[in-house]
């Protein structure tokens, strides 16, 4: 099967959630934060491709996910402020952007691993930095960064030395050196998950219910309220 980080992460959280989303085709509801995050990602991709950032944002701004026009307008203005701050920071950048929204594909056993890296930079000392854009600070991104670093190495032939998360709303970047010693263990875990998905057995894990977007109507949910 073809496995992405989203499929990998969601199955590990709860196999039943994986079934609801990827087998039954249920889409998680889009709220204001998620909608703005998608708009920012798309605008930044066009910016790294040479377009004006604020014009790209205006063109890519999603209108869905907001309860009314007034709320949508507030969130759009918030996005503009976030991108203005981003431009101020980026004006001092000395690295070369090797690519934005770079797709990687590589075989792993009988499976295929696929993903999209938000940004790759080469610094003046030759080191490569992999950056993932996030809307807000939240859950630990270590697993996702290591998944993408493996993808860059195996699928693009680029070995990152630094892994970073750029929290756009907070204008904060968390960076860490990349330790490749865990790659074989990660490969084994990806294969394990892909094999498990192929069995078609989706046993619910209710420990994730309080954070699940389907908790209100999932028949196994322990957090319906």
Describe this structure in a few short sentences.
With 225 residues, this protein is an alpha/beta fold. It has helices at 5-13, 15-23, 32-48, 53-60, 69-90, 142-156, 183-199; strands at 2-3, 96-108, 111-122, 128-134, 162-167, 172-177. A hairpin with a 2-residue loop joins strand 2 and strand 3 (111-122).
For the largest beta-sheet, the strand count, sense and barrel status come to: 6 strands, mixed
Measured as a percent range, the helix fraction is 40-55%
Helix tally equals 7
Order of helical and strand elements = EHHHHHEEEHEEH
Supply the number of structural domains: 1
Mean pLDDT: 95
- Report low-confidence residues grouped into runs of 5 or more: none
CATH architecture: Alpha-Beta Complex
- What's the overall geometry? globular
CATH class: Alpha Beta
Strand content: 15-25%
Instruction: Write down the Rg.
Output: 19 Å
Assign the CATH topology: Lambda Exonuclease, Chain A
Structural class: alpha/beta
Oligomer: single chain
The total beta strand count reads 6
The separation of the N and C termini measures: 36 Å
